[in-house]
Amino acid sequence: MAAQLTDDELSAALSGDPSGFSAVYSIISPAVLGYFRARGVDDAEALTQDVFVDVLPKLSNVRGGHSGLRTFIFSVAHARLVDYHRRSARTPQLTEFDPLLDERRSSSAEDEVLGSLGGITSSLAMLNDDQREVLVLRIVADLSVEQVAGIMDKTPGAIKQLQRRGLIALRELVKEKDHAAS
Amino acid sequence: MSVTPAGREEGEIQAILLDSGLEDDADLRRSLEELRGLAQDAAPRPRADLAALLAHGASAAGVPASVVPAQEPAMRRAASNVASLELHRRNRQRRMGFVVGAAVVGAMGLGAGAVAASSEDFRNSVGHTVVRIFQPTSETTAPTPVPTSLAGIPAAPAPTVAAPRPSVTGTAASPSAPVTPAQTDQAPAKDSSNSSASKGPSGEAAKSKMPTPGRPSQLPTVPGTGVTPHVPAKPLPAVPTLPGGMPTVPAKPVPGTP
């Protein structure tokens, strides 16, 4: 990850001190945001803030130091993601305005950014749901196999297996994409 | 908040690849680094409630308590505003059941009608079965005593056969009932029972069982002399029915005697 919480910040956060909260937020929220983006959530920022609004008041119950804190936050994020997917499966499909059909446009910075992201997120979208979750939690959320096993309620062996299969599938997808590009 | 050395991240990705035995795949590693890049963004600017939570940690406990329950009643209100479709659905299901049942019955009726219209055999057989169903059981049982009596007693069959015959005529034609009490004083009770249950063939069946002990004294003469002269002597209206019975009576003793 980009940064690590210091022990002081951690103990402050766990004791309900606002300075600890802001440290936890500024250090861990990018990973949570990346986690939601990698899973293709529409409004990843709002969901990230939901997670922290939910999590920060409950930090006093957290045990297990740094890894316990990460596990707790990503457990909540995982649950929120499951909720999001269920909710989005129920809500009607939104048809958005198609900018390609609109003449009045200039190239947008968002399009360029999304185009650069499109590579890996579109490949990830083609993976099995569990494999994708394991890879995102392992790489984006930077969790260990045991932590991911705890969050997904599976055994570490199953997580390793899912990770292996996900990586193999991802490799195939990347190769295919390279072939198509060349 | 210093940026962690890039070596650590690479080491982790390397470890993940090693775990799965894919450590020498450069393309895959590049993809995973790209994936990790998603987590390198700056923290999103906190919205109002989160900012309040971050700023006032002490009152933090109060903030979510006011935020979360505020959302829940809103959802509950929204749910109460939504008209429930449950009752409507149940009604529709019940109606659906009736409609389907009616359709099935109607289709079966149409099918049977079509078959009946197309084949005469079917019509005949259905007619037969309907007749057989609606025929009282006594009529079907009435013929059975005749062969049993024939098989059991070779000499006596004629009385037993003759006994039902007059009774049949008696039941068929009501005038025979007044005639029989006048003729025979021996079995007035039987005849009264005849007349009371004159129409029902069940009465006839009861008679075929009941009168046999009483009648033999009268009837033994019938087979010896010949059936025709005796039977007309007793009941007058019995005469027309006997010709029908006639061929059967001589036919039966013949196979019985040898």
TrEMBL record, chain A:
Gene3D superfamilies: 1.10.1740.10, Winged helix-like DNA-binding domain superfamily/Winged helix DNA-binding domain
CDD domains: Sigma70_r4
SUPFAM superfamilies xref list: Sigma2 domain of RNA polymerase sigma factors (SSF88946), Sigma3 and sigma4 domains of RNA polymerase sigma factors (SSF88659)
Protein keywords: DNA-binding, Sigma factor, Transcription, Transcription regulation
GO molecular function: DNA binding; sigma factor activity
A matching Pfam family: Sigma70_r4
Gene Ontology BP annotations: DNA-templated transcription initiation
Name the record gives this protein: Sigma-70 family RNA polymerase sigma factor
Native organism: Arthrobacter globiformis
From TrEMBL, chain B:
Renumbered residue ranges of the record's region Disordered: 137-258
Keywords: Membrane, Transmembrane, Transmembrane helix
Transmembrane annotation, as ranges: 96-117
Superkingdom classification of source: Bacteria
Descriptive protein name: Uncharacterized protein
The keyword Membrane is assigned to this record: yes
Compositionally biased tracts (Low complexity): 154-203
